[in-house]
Amino acid sequence: MSLFARDGIAKVSGPVPSKVQHDIALETIRSVDGVRSIHDSLKVAAH
């Protein structure tokens, strides 16, 4: 997973092992002070 943030916009991409991990990642990013928007390109890896 990679994350780039600038001017309140977070761009996150790459594979995550599960939907739960995807949701945790987005929840964590949203909790960061100053983040106004998230561009989510995370992909849940197929098992």
Structural class, by secondary structure, is alpha+beta
* Contiguous runs where pLDDT drops below 50 for at least 5 residues: none
Integer-rounded radius of gyration: 11 Å
Q: What's the overall average pLDDT, rounded?
A: 95
Shape call: elongated
Give the count of helical stretches: 1
Helix content: 25-40%
The major sheet is characterized as: 3 strands, mixed
List how many beta strands DSSP finds: 3
Distance between the termini: 17 Å
The succession of helices and strands, N to C, reads: EEHE
Q: Taking strands numbered 1, 2, ... along the chain, how are they ordered across the largest sheet?
A: 1-2-3
Secondary structure layout plus pairing:
Elements lengths: L1 E5 L2 E8 L2 H12 L6 E8 L3
Parallel strand pairs: 2-3
Antiparallel strand pairs: 1-2
Describe this entry's structure for a reader.
- The protein is of the alpha+beta class and 47 residues long.
- 26% of the residues lie in helices and 45% in strands.
- It has a three-stranded mixed β-sheet, with helices on one face.
- It comes from Cupriavidus metallidurans (strain ATCC 43123 / DSM 2839 / NBRC 102507 / CH34) (Ralstonia metallidurans).
- This is Periplasmic or secreted lipoprotein.
- InterPro entries: BON_dom.
